[in-house]
## 1
Amino acid sequence: MTFVSAAFLFAALAGAIPVVLHMINRQQAKNLPFSTLRFLRISAEKTRRRKRIHDLLLMLLRVAVLILLAFGLAEPTLTSLSHFWGNGSTAVAILLDNSASMGVIDEGRPRFETARDAARQILGELGDGDQVVLMLTGGPKLDNQERLQTAHDKVLQAIDQAAVSYERAELAEKLRDAENLLARTETQNKQIYVLTDMQQLSWEGLKERAQKPADAERADHPGEQVPLIVVDCNRNPKPNVAVTGLELKAVVPVAGLPITAMVELFNAASAPQKRHAELYVDGAKTATSPELEIPPGERLAHGFQFVLEQGGMHRGELRIVGDGPAAPRRSGEEEIWLRSAGSSRGRALWCPLTASASRTPSTARRWRWAAATAPSPNG
Amino acid sequence: MSSGYRYLEPEALARMKNLSMVARGVVEGAVSGMHASPYKGFSVEFAEHREYTAGDDPRHLDYKMLARTDRLYIKQYEEETNMRVQILLDTSGSMGYRQASKLTKLQYGCYLTAILAYLMIRQQDSVGLTTFDTQIGLDMPARGSPRHFNEMMQRLESLQPGEETDIGAILHRLANRFKRRCLIVVISDLYDEPEEVMRALHHFRHRKHEVIVFNVFDKAEIEFPFTDTIAFHDLETNDRIQIDPAYVREAYLEQMDGFIEGYRRACAESNIDYVMTDTSVPYDFMLSKYIAKRTLL
């Protein structure tokens, strides 16, 4: 708010006039004789409190009138009326997760259908004139996906047409897009709904996004926080532990000397998970980890030590064993391949222990390593 | 035409000339008149029989009764007598108040006293006047002579409002002084503790006096028409209070109504005539109205 004629603000000092007049009038009360004051005293006592309040309010009103007059003469100007009053409508961005995991069927119903129903319900709650945009996390873009619109029937049509894609959801990135989109509207009431099955991988990059400076679209509204409402469409969260890393270490990579396999497990579920990891070498169980408790969204490393009796190519396998029937075994999906690179009796071959990992882009998580060891000096 | 007295206006006299004030009960007078007397004498109105005793005048024997019963009875008659009226006029400071009228309450009371005295003297009654504030001031016993009336009128003209009031105590003292039954007319604003005043008026009634109270106010006291903030000072005590009439009017009128109604109710219960008036009402009109109503009752 700015003032065109700020000098008139000094006229607000005139607010003292009623106070002065009140004091002067007190001194100049007319004197009159009266037959008896007995009734006047009783009456004055009865009305004293009311009179005081009334006098005070009257004086405040008079002071306020003069101050407001001065304020008006100073010609205040509001830079943005919408900030002052708001326009009453709402702008809503609906982020509909259509990643592959949304195709999973929970309790006989695909998660995506649950999300789609939630989107329809949100749309039904909006009033005429409210702006809405539907954003999918993957797959081909919808018509008018990047534009807020008041035609709710078109958005409803888009919801009906949306389908599960085979891409991974990048919710952090989409959130940024939604915030930028909402920043362009002057509407005061803004909301972002995220309809997702809460896969951890979908939220990757959220922390980095929060630390980034605001985009140009949002520069005009610093500090504006758009409420984010996340709707979890995962009706029956499943155990979801994956091997995300494996590294083989050996001081001297020769047969007969200990080799350490450092395993990294990741709990992608929303609840803590307890697991045992088992290491199989050449089809035989070589080591078992104690029970590993992995908090949701956390990674945990565990080291196995084993000894290869002979040099040459070896095949290894890491199995994750569940801690109950609710956590099915996922063994067999993780394998270790160990391979020796030739041997020479009585000689030590110094070959670096190597491990390489590749991760398929799809849901199956397979790890393959190639390891070379030299035979022991004794053969 | 002037009557020669300040408080006796010929116009008022002309309007009141056909009215007469009659005692409602019995009064003890020395002269035969138009009011019932407690003394049974030998007059026109028969009252009762009494057995003859030695020394009774045989002229009053009821011979018819003697013929019928063969016993001696004396006929007794109601004696009509004159009325003794004692006017008690309040001359306290508050009676000097005047705001909405050209008369102070004391002046109004003086006019009322004069016209009442005139009416009484004219009908052969005797009138006395006692003024009081905290003490008894002027004290004229009841007489019926023109000279007495003349003196009373002159004394009225010199009356001035005094200071504070102690109506209750003064009326008690006066009640003890009037031995013979008479008509007591109190003219006052009654600004004292109502319980005390009523006790004193009961005292009069207990002594068999008939009592009429003229409670006189100024119209401003009843309507409280003030608007601006005013510092009122008490005419009796000189105390001051600054108030905004707009705030206190409602509560004041409520107090005042309660005060008047209290007297009205208490007087009615004690068989005392209570007449509330204000100085804007012509005293002769008010008095005519009262006498007419009293005659009907």
Note: Residues 2-77 of chain A form one domain.
## 2
Amino acid sequence: MLSHFTAALIFAAVTSVVFGVTSKHTDRERLLYGLWVFGIFLAVTLGAAWLMYLLHG
Amino acid sequence: MGSKAATTESAERVQIPVGVIVAAWLLPGGGHFLQRRWGRGSLLLGAISLMFFLGLALGGRFFHITPGNIVETLGSLGDFCSGLFYFGVRFWGYEAVPVAAPAADYGTKFLLVAGLLNVLCILDAYDIAVGNKS
């Protein structure tokens, strides 16, 4: 059974790959942008999870 | 006056790369393959396939065109953008049983987002074809 967090990680990874490949002009820029987007997805997911935990207990 | 004429002339010269757009829609990364961008095409094909088939494995459902329900109708448009994956799966009779399970809900979103990500691939393939990108 896929947990919510695992699903979010897979979603972030796939989306980051597509964003990276389609957004920039050089391979280095694509790699860095993909990693950046993945990091942002991860940070927002964890931040939102903590926020909900603190709000709802 | 001269620059306006030049702009009109250059706009007339731009050919819409229909073959690339159709290939990119039918197969994620197909537009890139057609333009010999093998590495990028493979990455796009792998990533979008993973999302689409994981969506199926989780029991996600496709949206249907429903008059009066804009969310459902727009969702069906997003699903439609997955190209051959969508048509193939519908042709083979896939229809998810509606269940109130989180995994099936993730699956539905994965199927939808696979189609939406393919729209980005189509736009990127178009940009390459008209020379906006390498």
Note: Residues 115 and 127 of chain B are 19 Å apart (CA to CA).
